[in-house]
Amino acid sequence: MKLIKIPKHPARTLRCVGAALALALLGACAFKESGYGVGPQAERQAMMQQASRDPAPDTPGMYLGLIGRMQSQGLYFASLAHIDAYEKQYGATPDSILLRADALRMTDQPEASASAYARLLQTPLASRGHRGLGLLAGGQGDFGGAASELQQAAQLAPTDPSVLSDLGYARLRAGDIAGARVPLMKAAELDSANPKIVSNIALFLLADGQAKDAQALMNQQKFAPDIRAAIRSDAAKVAAATRLAAPGGRLPHGSHTTPAGTVASTQNVMEPAQRLLQRFAQ
């Protein structure tokens, strides 16, 4: 759940854009996805200006597609304006509500975003509503609540690799290392090329004490130093959460949170990611 927080002030928001991209490979960074540097910022500004000049598409589906493309480029504020225009012309639909909820979350309006996601729970997009509520909870540091919402999302959309990856990440951050294994492995086999999912598996391996597996996986995927540092930072947070989740708030010396044999041992050689994932599933 890359289960990153955008500062409440616009100036601080712009400064965090670069950090958001660097962390986007981790489950936590499913919350924030943005561009980096002056070039992409200028490009997005030009797109925003162009979007404000272009007439709205002729059909509801085309208009929703345009709004979705705007969000994929990070134009969340502009998309909110177009969602208002869409709903004024066509009325609110589950798809427009989801776009609004996502845009509100990405523009640091969590209460309004939560209200919008909640409106989806009685619609065919209920799984997206639960996922959004889970991402909001994770963004506020409530990984237990995030795991609960994402579990409901996974029950409604059992083959969605992003939901499964986010669920695994949330469970890790809540201190449930053993519980993270199955959803992460499902996500990996459904979408083994997804770098965010692979990074969450590297995080699991580190948290589970399988440092050699994690290192081999990061080497094979050519993860940048800042991504590796972010994974290790999250592994430390998982360790702290695991200690708190143990009886008495700390683990006995030498104890292990995952049953022996859950993860097969690796040889001291670098192997392709897919072979590591296959052993991880054993």
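^ that was protein a. below is b, sequence first then the tokens
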Amino acid sequence: MHSFLQRLLPDLPAVSWQERFRVVVGALLGLLVTGLVCRAAVGAGSALPILIAPMGASTVLLFAVPASPLAQPWSIVGGNTIAALTGVVVRLLVPDPVIGAALAGAVAILLMLALRCLHPPSGAVALTAVLGGPAVWDLGFGFALWPVGANSVLLLLAALAYNNLTGRPYPHRAPRPAHATQDPPPAERIGFSAADLDAALAESDQLLDISRADLEALLRRTELHSFARRARATRTREIMSRDVVAISPDASFREALDTLRRHHIKALPVTDDHARVIGILTQTDLLDKAAWDGRGPRLGARERLRLTMRRGRAPASSVADIMTAPVRTVGPDEPIADVVPEMSALGIHHLPVTDPDGRLVGIVSQTDLVVALLADAARRSEAGA
């Protein structure tokens, strides 16, 4: 009996109480704003519907699972509008409300699938158009504009504002490292290929409440975590460079360029007078943020204006003006298996290593990691031989 009951429970991932609070507050604000604005628009004594029940279901999607393909802007606006129009047409053509409701729901799903705006609450919108009674029937095709269209747009605007302000980018896009070549990112060159995933999805032949891009990103991160579980012996301190060349934030661009050239390196940790890391200067920073002429790198007019507006004072044409800050750092006892996924996901090539006080003690490069991973793989191979 216990195993049977367990099968009835959804296999949902656990989320923090902070995320639960975020969702609940968002739903409250979204429905409250939508209802208050609609009531103000038609008046408290109006016979027009102010807020229809399917919006409650839309709220669950927009605020609880904003990454879902079923919760994107075209899904809610397109799905609800199409479902409302479908329900009105079916009610006019089919006098039996039970048959009409079933037909409206089915046709609405078919149209949403064809137009790529599937939104589960829209099924309830189609039924509301058929079963809503005189208050809804009297609106005719206007039901798609009011209250369905107005409710949908207002709820969507609330979701756009709230999700983005609370750290949930919406409309959702799966993050992908930016690169300007045809080569896939490093994490995609090992393990399964995009074609493998497409083949698996084709075999499944069913709709999933997750985008293909999100599913691929999740599976690749799973691969990295699997590696991390198998290779946790090597620590950052064992592979880091200890004789690190750093630079002051007050140094000039020319000094930074000369230092990079002299030591044949591609990144310079930027430290204060107490050796605490406050940023990092890379070749990319010099190329992208500095203007170049016959005299070497200098601060361009656009970058100078941007820095002046941001800081309220003129920049000094120093390393501090173009360094990357804040900078991600790692501790000397951190397993390299934890460092690899982060460097891959962020697309970075160097990580400063700092002590608990934030002072520079070393630096880890992608080359260091490659050597360590090869050594780790060799050790595992020997152990299994």
